[in-house]
């Protein structure tokens, strides 16, 4: 059952990748501290040492594209979601 849920989730993200519906995720980054990743993309849009800076920049990106910011905690779990859809 868990594999099926993961497959459905991965398909959902793949469908959004590269589209206007792709959301921005603020996630821990091994090398820089924090990163902003666009949904479905492997490479970060931005990396920074500060989570607050990553959130600030992700908000700007989401507002510009009328999408959402998904903020993760240090363990990668979703902590908050901000909706900028018009």
Structural account:
The protein has 2 helices and 5 strands. It is α+β, with helices and mostly antiparallel strands. A 5-stranded mixed β-sheet has the order 3-2-1-4-5, with helices on one face. The N and C termini lie far apart (35 Å).
How many E strands? 5
Helix-and-strand structural type: alpha+beta
| Helix/strand order, N-terminal first | HEEEHEE
**Proportion in helices:** 25-40%
What integer is the average pLDDT? Answer: 83
Distance between the termini: 35 Å
What oligomeric assembly is this protein in? single chain
Number of domains: 1
For the biggest sheet, the summary is: 5 strands, mixed
Radius of gyration over C-alpha positions, nearest whole angstrom: 13 Å
Spatial strand sequence of the major β-sheet: 3-2-1-4-5
Overall geometric form: globular
Count of helical stretches: 2
Query: Proportion of β residues?
Result: 25-35%
Low-confidence stretches: 8-14
């Amino acid at each position: 059952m868990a594999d099926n849920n993961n497959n459905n989730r991965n398909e959902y993200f793949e469908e959004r990748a590269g589209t206007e519906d792709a959301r921005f995720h603020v996630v821990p980054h091994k090398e820089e501290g924090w990163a902003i990743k666009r949904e479905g993309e492997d490479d970060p849009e931005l990396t920074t040492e500060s989570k607050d800076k990553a959130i600030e920049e992700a908000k700007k990106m989401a507002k510009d594209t009328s999408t959402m910011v998904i903020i993760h905690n240090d363990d990668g779990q979703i902590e908050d979601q901000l909706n900028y859809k018009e």
